Amino acid sequence: MDWFRGEKLGRGSFAQVNLAIPRSQSSFLHPLMAVKSCGASLSSSLLNEKSILEELKDCPQIIRYYGDSYSFENGEKLYNVLLEYASGGSLADCLKSAGDRTIPEPQVRRYTKALLKGLHYIHKFGYVHCDLKPQNILLTSDGGVRIADFGLAKRAGGGGELRGTPLYMSPEMVAGSEQGAAADVWALGCVVAEMASGSPAWRCSDLAALLMRIGVGEEVPEIPGDLSAEGRDFAEKCFVKDPRGRWTAEMLLNHPFVCGEEEMNGSEELRSGDWKMASASPRCPFDFEEWSCSLTSPAESWSVSKAEERLRGLVNVGAEIAPNWSSTDDWLTIR
Ligand SMILES: Nc1ncnc2c1ncn2[C@@H]1O[C@H](COP(=O)(O)OP(=O)(O)OP(=O)(O)O)[C@@H](O)[C@H]1O
C-alpha cells in the first residue's frame, strides 16, 4: 500500500507513530491509518509486534494491522508497521485531560468489558500482552476500545526476563515466575482502579519500595472507594496475588461488573476529521525513559520466598542503572 507520512500522533520508548495517508484512490477502504516506525536496525520489538498483530487481526478490540514496509527517510532506513488509526488517542490522554474528574462508572464498565474481550482473544491464542496500561489502550472516534503496543507481547509461559511497566506489573512478574495470562488480568485490575480514581493504582514514588510491595507480602493496590460493590469485587478478583487463584479474562467476562454492559460499537469506520495529536503523557514518578534489564533467575512458580530472593537481585540491578527519578519526561518500560 502506497502512503505518505502525516502528522505525529505519539511517541513511545522506541518507536514513533504518525498518521499514514494513502496516496492512491484504491486505498479508499482505509482512508487514514497510523504508521509505527523505528530504525530498521532496532526493529526486533516492532517485528515481534507485527507478527503477533498479524495473527490476532480478527479481534475488534485489538488494533488492526494493515501491512508493513521499509522506507528510507532522511538518510535512515526505517521499518514501518501500518495500523488502524485510533483517532480518540490513548486512555492515558483521556485520563490526563479529565484532570480531577474520574471516568463515570458506566464508561469504566464498557471499557473494561472491551478490554476483557481483547485479552480473552489474546490469551486464547497463547499470548500474553505483558504491557497493558492506559498508554497502550487506544480509543476510536466512536468510543471503541483497542488494545495496542504488542512490542513486549510473548507466548505464555517462561519466566526470568522482566518486562512491562512497574506500576502495572503482577507479583509473579516481579518474582520472575511464569509469566502467563494472569499477569494481564492483574494489569487490567490496575487500569480499572486508575480509570475509577483518576490516578495510578499504586501510590509510591520509590521503585524498589514499589517492587517490594507488589512482589512480597499480601498488599494489593488500593481499590477506589467510590467504585460500586460490583466494581470493587471485580478489582479484588484481578488482585489475587497468587496467579493460580486469579480469575481469568474469560471468567471475568461473566462478572456482574461487566456482563450486563453493552459495548460502544467502535465500528471499523475511521473518520477523516477529528484527529488530534496524541503524545506520551507522563503523570507519575514512574514515568521515565526506557529502563532495560534482563534477569536470569527464573523461578518455577510464584512464591513469597522466591519473590524476596529475586527482588534483592532486581533492586540491585535497578540501583546500578536507575534512571533519574525526579524526571517525568517519559514512561518507564522495562524490556
Ligand atoms: N494506531 C494508533 N492510532 C493513534 N495513535 C496511536 C496509534 N498507535 C500509537 N499511537 C500513539 O502513539 C503512542 C506510542 O505508541 P506505542 O505505545 O505503540 O509506542 P511504543 O514505542 O511501543 O511505546 P512503549 O514505550 O509503551 O513501548 C501511543 O501512546 C498513542 O498515543
TrEMBL record:
One of its GO terms (molecular function) is ATP binding. Keywords: ATP-binding, Kinase, Nucleotide-binding, Serine/threonine-protein kinase, Transferase. ATP binds at residue 36. GO terms for biological process: signal transduction. It holds the Pfam family Pkinase. Coiled coil: none annotated. Residues 3-258 form the Protein kinase domain. SUPFAM superfamilies: Protein kinase-like (PK-like). The keyword RNA-binding does not apply. The keyword Ribonucleoprotein does not apply. Belongs to the protein kinase superfamily. This is Protein kinase domain-containing protein.
